[in-house]
Specification:
CATH architecture of the largest domain: Alpha-Beta Complex
CATH class of the largest domain: Alpha Beta
Distance between the termini: 61 Å
CATH superfamily of the largest domain: Gamma Fibrinogen, chain A, domain 1
Largest sheet: 11 strands, antiparallel
Helix content: 10-25%
Strand content: 35-45%
Length: 321
C-alpha cells in the first residue's frame, strides 16, 4: 500500500471518529466530573478512544447515560453504560483518573437538571447556558427546585471586602463560599425573565430567635450590564417575613473602589466591608464581614426586632416558566 493510500485511510478514520463526536455531542451533555452513579451499569466496555463510548451509547437503544473512566497512566478507557438517567450521584476523590458522566438530556441550567431527575442540591458540571462547561451550584429543594445559586456564604471563607473586578468576575469557588460574579449574573438574567429567592439563618445573640430561618421570594430579578454599573431591577415580593429588597430596585452596584450608592456622605462598600446594591448602607447585608465579635460587625439583616446577625446566606435565581 503506497503512502497516498495510507494518508487517505488515515483521513477517513479521523473524519469517522470526528463525526461520531459531532453526532453524539448533539445528544449528550456532561453533568458531572468525579461523580459516579449509585447503581450498577448494565454494560461495561473497554475502548481505546473516549469517542467510542459516545458511539456505543448512541447506537444502544437502552443507553440513557454513561460514565467514562480514564486512568491517566494506563489503558484502556472504560465505559459504563446505564439504562436510566443517573441522578443519584456520589462524589469521589480522584488523583490518578478522570471520570466524566454524560446523559442524553439537554441540560444547560439547574432547571434542566431538575426536570431530568437530578433532585440533589450541590455542584454540577454542565454546559451552562450553552456557553461552555463550568461548575454551577444548584438548589433542588426550595420551591420546586432548579435554582441557580449566585451567592453562597456558610463558613466565612474568603475576603469579601474587595474591588469592582473581583465582584465582576466572582469570588471563591463553588465548593466553598462564593459569589457567582456580576457579569455572569447579568448574562443569565438578560437571557429571560428570572425570579429570586434568598434564605438565611439568624444568629442567636442573647436568646434564640423565635423563627431562626428567614427568607424572601421575589417574582422579578434582573441585573443590567457593566456600562450601567450592574443596576438592579427587583420587585414582586411574593413571600417571606418582611420585604427587605424592593427598596433597592434601581440601585447600582457599589464596591470599595467604585461608589454607586445613593448615600452622599459615605461609600457603603467601605462602611459595610463588602460590595452590594447599597442604597443607604443598611437593611440587607449578605456580603459584610462574616462575624467580628470585637467590633460587633457581622453579615446580617434588619428584621422587625432590629439588626440581626446571620449564620449563613444563600441567594438563588430561577427562570420564570
Amino acid at each position: 500500500m503506497n503512502v497516498k493510500n495510507l494518508i487517505r485511510i488515515s483521513l477517513i478514520l479521523f473524519w469517522f471518529e470526528t463525526q461520531i463526536m459531532i453526532i453524539a455531542s448533539k445528544r449528550f451533555e456532561i453533568v458531572g466530573r468525579n461523580k459516579i452513579p449509585n447503581k450498577t451499569p448494565y454494560s461495561t466496555v473497554d475502548v481505546k478512544f473516549e469517542q467510542h463510548c459516545f458511539s456505543k451509547c448512541h447506537h444502544m437503544t437502552k443507553c440513557l447515560s454513561f460514565l467514562i473512566n480514564r486512568t491517566s497512566n494506563a489503558m484502556p478507557i472504560r465505559c459504563h453504560f446505564y439504562d436510566s438517567i443517573s441522578t443519584n450521584l456520589t462524589d469521589i476523590q480522584i488523583t490518578t483518573a478522570d471520570t466524566k458522566l454524560f446523559t442524553t438530556a439537554d441540560i444547560q441550567d439547574c432547571q434542566d437538571l431538575y426536570n431530568s431527575g437530578y433532585k440533589d442540591s450541590g455542584v454540577y458540571y454542565i454546559n451552562f447556558l450553552g456557553k461552555g462547561q463550568r461548575d454551577i451550584r444548584c438548589d433542588m429543594e426550595i420551591e420546586g427546585g432548579g435554582w441557580i445559586v449566585i451567592l453562597y456564604r456558610m463558613t466565612g471563607q474568603h475576603n469579601w471586602n474587595v474591588g469592582w473586578n473581583q465582584y465582576k468576575n466572582g469570588i471563591g469557588e463553588m465548593t466553598s463560599d462564593f459569589y457567582l460574579g456580576n457579569e455572569l449574573i447579568h448574562q443569565i438574567t438578560d437571557s429571560g425573565q428570572y425570579q429570586m429567592y434568598f434564605t438565611t439563618e439568624l444568629r442567636a445573640v442573647d436568646s434564640p430567635p423565635a423563627d431562626p430561618m428567614y427568607y424572601g421570594w421575589y417574582e422579578h430579578f434582573h441585573v443590567a450590564d457593566e456600562a450601567d454599573s450592574y443596576r438592579l431591577s427587583i420587585g414582586g415580593f411574593k413571600g417571606g417575613q418582611t420585604d427587605l429588597l424592593t427598596h433597592l430596585d434601581g440601585t447600582q452596584f457599589t464596591t470599595i473602589d467604585r461608589d454607586r450608592d445613593t448615600n452622599n456622605n459615605k461609600n457603603c462598600g467601605n462602611v459595610k466591608k463588602g460590595g452590594f446594591w447599597w442604597r443607604a448602607c443598611g437593611g440587607f447585608q449578605p456580603t459584610s464581614i462574616y462575624l467580628d465579635t470585637n467590633s460587633m460587625r457581622c453579615m446580617g439583616l434588619y428584621t422587625t426586632a432590629g439588626r440581626t446577625c446571620t449564620k449563613n446566606f444563600q441567594i438563588m435565581i430561577k427562570k420564570k416558566i
